[in-house]
Amino acid sequence: MVGAVETPPILKLEAPDVTRDLDLTVAEVAGLLELAGDLRGRPSRYSKALEGRSIALLFEKPSLRTRLTFELAITQLGGHAVFIEGKVGGREPIKDVARNLDRWVNGIVARVFRQNTIEELAHWSADPVVNALSDLYHPCQALADVFTLQQHFGRLKGLNLAYVGDGNNVAHSLMLTAVRLEVNVSWATPPAYAPAASVVAEAAALA
Description:
alpha/beta; Rossmann fold; 4-stranded parallel β-sheet; two-stranded parallel sheet
């Protein structure tokens, strides 16, 4: 007797790129967290999700955790990771980098210095672009953090989250992601290291 092969669920996103946290709607964030929970519990179900696909990892900034976890995730999903280190748009314009890569790979994960670099890659690439860190945002880290909270507490709504440290890209992304999931967010930073006022105002408007 041959059993039916269970097809893993696919989350359809309104926007192909994740350049910043607000590229994802609240419903899409909730769907990603649900999908991550299922993947964590049944990894073999997703072992061919990226079969036959290659993902470029563009890293201007050195990294241990981000590079290793993205490479492992792509491999465990059946895909192939291509690592490229160095300044994006140095020898060749970002426009040319993006347009060439979308002929060769199926997606771009970029860890860069400037948010403008991410946005320009997304503008010129027909393939999805994921922000793995920029000077303003770190959406993948924020998603990992709220997923951990949800796994630990069994819920997100009504939790009190305190952030202590530099008001940096992680702080920005946590604010924008957590408040939309009805988490109460407070932060404490040294006076010279406060988060960007524009991001605080944006988060306050969303809370």
